[in-house]
Amino acid sequence: MTAEPLELGTATLFEASGLPCDLDPAFRPVWPGARVAGRALTVQAAEGDNLPLHWALEEAEPGDVLVVDAGGARFGYWGEVLAVAAEARGVAGLVIDGGVRDTARLRELGFPAFGTHIAIRGTGKRWRGTVGAPIVMRGRPVRTGDLVVADEDGIVVLPEAVVPGVLAAGRERVAKEEAFMARLREGELTLDLYGMRDLPELP
Ligand SMILES: O=C([O-])CC(=O)C(=O)O
Ligand SMILES: [Mg+2]
Q1: What single DSSP character describes residue 124?
Q2: Where exactly are the structural domains of the chain?
Q3: 3-164 — its CATH code?
Q4: β-pairing verdict for 64-78 and 36-44
Q5: From the CB of 153, is ligand 1 less than 6 Å away?
Q6: pTM score of the predicted model
């Protein structure tokens, strides 16, 4: 269920979906090569407070990706300790609109984390937040149970119901591009393959 989306990659999944399923490009992997796919478990946190992340680890199922709205605040909401706890419970990764720290250790652990900042400033533990309720990540709604796929190009979030169709369309797209690339290697031009020579000029 998660190998194929990773193999197709976020750019292909986005194009194949025909949906506004991409998260803001401000979300970046905190170490090069990080990638993850899994069921979203949504978390809402307050500015500078990571208590809901600790609660989320109790709720999480193996294979879940924590998707956290922390309002983009520049705090280190997540680091080595939480990653070790997450790995022990089979949590597959993290996407947070906020900061992450201990990034060298996360890379060594191989724990895939995506955030909008790397930040060393620690958090308080005063507001329990929500775990599992729908959230909005920089304008994109995310529900627990959605498929989240994150790689070096970006992040897509797909409602469960559309996943089989998007995977099928993604496979078709890859096959078509592979056929095109075989012809490009023979010297043909994208202008001809994509039929772009006779495009009408802007009036
Ligand atoms: O402790 C925290 O709140 C965040 C962190 O650095 C870790 O999990 O290692
Ligand atoms: Mg730490």
Answers
A1: B
A2: 3-164
A3: 3.50.30.40
A4: parallel
A5: no
A6: 0.95
Give the pLDDT confidence of 80-115 residue by residue, as tens digits.
Answer: 999 999 999 999 999 999 999 999 999 999 999 999
For the chain, how far is it from start to end, CA to CA, in angstroms?
47
Element (H, E) at 75: strand 64-78
Q: Quick one: which atom of ligand 1 is closest to the CA of 122?
A: 3
Rounded (10°) angle between helices 10-17 and 163-185: 110
What mean pLDDT is reported for the chain?
97
Burial of 51 (0-12, 13-18, 19+ CB in 10 A): middle
**Pocket flag, ligand 1, residue 79 (CB < 6 Å):** yes
**Which run of H or of E encompasses 44?**
strand 36-44
Rounded to the nearest 5 degrees, what angle is found at the Cα of 142, between the Cα atoms of 72 and 130?
A: 70
Q: Dig out the tokens for 19 from the structure.
A: 């949906």
**Which atom of ligand 1 sits closest to the CA of residue 85?**
8
ipTM above 0.95, yes or no: yes
pLDDT tier, 196 (very low <50, low <70, confident <90, very high otherwise): very high
